[in-house]
Design goal:
431 residues, Growth Hormone, Chain: A
């Protein structure tokens, strides 16, 4: 066997590289398939979660249209996040039992109904049903839970990098969908914008139905997380994982961090408009945050493959604190300086912990119950985001301002950062 043969064997049999200078893609079809699967997961995650995050630009139009209080409107997003969390558990259990095709077809169908119907509604409970329940469960069915399971079958030693790219689809979706949603609202009103989104997901559904799912689920040859037929074996079940300290550490990191981050992000567009920025400027700033979160997640994954993951996570939390502080200081120092600091620091750090947790869980709980275990841990993110969004809205209604919300969001974010150091199984994982 020549040196070239050995190198090809190393890359193709153990992990498909994200960047291969020797053009292995041309010689090994599994590398190309792995990259296509990764891009597919990024695209679906971007569409689903990106559309969910557009609720920030629908917030004021809905409030003005129906004269609803801020807490009432944000409660729709809270229902969405609760269902996203619960749907993550459902998504993992369904994936483990029925496979990826069922997940993606059912999820896109739910999103088609969710946004297609929302444009015709005028009652709060109807928005709870469509945007909240259907939108949340639909996004969970095609989001990071099946992404983690599929990507971990195709990538091994560069798993953190691959998963960070998959996870970054959420940030990419915010970048794409939020400005587009604002433009659609300006031209078609909020109802027309939702109907347009429904047609978009209907087209995606037709494509998803005809994809070669048997090949997609197969995974890379000799990947230790893969098994013949795409069915993983070994490892802990969900019930066994629930008895471990590591699982609950991940769960509460998701919960507390989500309270802090989503309590800020959902209100940011309305806050910037109240500070004197135009609706387009506020939406653009939120979109840039999304684009930077895409870069931040990818960079976090690369860093997590090189340095201790609890240190990488801690650096991202520092950026979050700086971003929250800069946003608060806009009340005293309006202008572009502190807005720029907020956009850069909050954007680079928002969601940056996700790829680290995803990678650690893929390594810690690899096996038959991975999708279910990861889905269960995402319940924490769903409940935390719902609590943060609703709590921020209630605090605004009670106090007429955002300062108490800024303080509490900073506190919960600090608790999330602390857990990376306080739980030994997390601090020393991956070493």
């Amino acid at each position: 066997m020549t040196c070239c043969d050995r190198r090809s064997h190393h890359y193709s049999d153990y992990y498909p590289p994200l960047i291969n200078p020797d053009s292995t893609v041309n010689r090994n079809p599994s590398v190309a398939i792995a990259l296509i699967v990764l891009l597919f997961c990024v695209f679906l995650t971007a569409l689903s979660r990106g559309m969910g995050e557009t609720f920030g630009v629908f917030l004021l139009p809905l409030s003005n249209q129906f004269a609803w209080e801020r807490a009432s409107v944000t409660s729709i997003y809270s229902v969405y996040m609760v269902c996203l969390g619960c749907g993550s558990l459902l998504s993992g259990m369904v994936f483990d039992r029925f496979g990826a095709r069922f997940n993606y077809c059912a999820g896109v169908a739910l999103l088609t109904c969710a946004y297609g119907m929302a444009g015709s509604y005028d009652s709060l409970w109807q928005f709870y049903l469509s945007i909240g329940i259907f939108g949340g469960i639909g996004a969970a069915m095609i989001g990071i839970v099946p992404t983690q399971s599929l990507v971990s079958r195709w990538f091994d030693k560069r798993l953190a990098t691959a998963l960070s790219i998959g996870y970054a689809g959420q940030g990419l979706g915010t970048l794409m969908m939020v400005p587009l949603a604002q433009i659609a609202i300006d031209r078609l009103q909020w109802s027309g914008a939702y109907k347009l989104a429904g047609w978009m997901f209907a087209i995606v559904l037709l494509v998803v139905i005809v994809l070669p799912w048997k090949k997609i689920e197969q995974g890379a040859h000799n990947n230790p997380r893969n098994a013949p037929g795409g069915k993983s074996t070994g490892g802990l079940s969900l019930s066994e994982a629930l008895k471990t300290r590591a699982f609950w550490g991940f769960f509460f990191i998701f919960t507390t961090t989500a309270i802090g981050i989503f309590g800020i992000s959902l209100q940011s567009v309305a806050y910037l408009i109240e500070r004197g920025y135009s609706e387009v400027e506020a939406a653009l700033a939120f979109g840039i945050v999304g684009s930077l979160s895409f870069a931040g997640m990818a960079l976090t994954g690369l860093a997590a493959d090189r340095w201790p993951r609890h240190l990488v996570a801690s650096c991202s939390y520092v950026l979050s604190f700086i971003g929250i502080g800069a946003l608060a200081l806009l009340q005293l120092y309006p202008g572009w300086l502190f807005l720029g600091i907020f956009v850069i620091t909050f954007g680079l750090s928002a969601g940056a912990r996700g790829p680290i947790i995803t990678t650690l869980m893929a390594e810690t709980f690899a096996g038959k119950g991975l999708a279910s275990i990861y889905g269960a841990s995402n319940l924490g993110q769903g409940f935390g985001a719902a609590f943060g969004a609703l709590g921020a809205g209630l605090l605004y209604d009670l106090t007429g301002g955002y300062n108490i919300g800024f303080i509490l969001c900073s506190l919960f974010t600090f608790i999330g950062a602390s857990l990376f150091w306080l739980v030994p199984e997390i601090r020393h994982a991956g070493k």
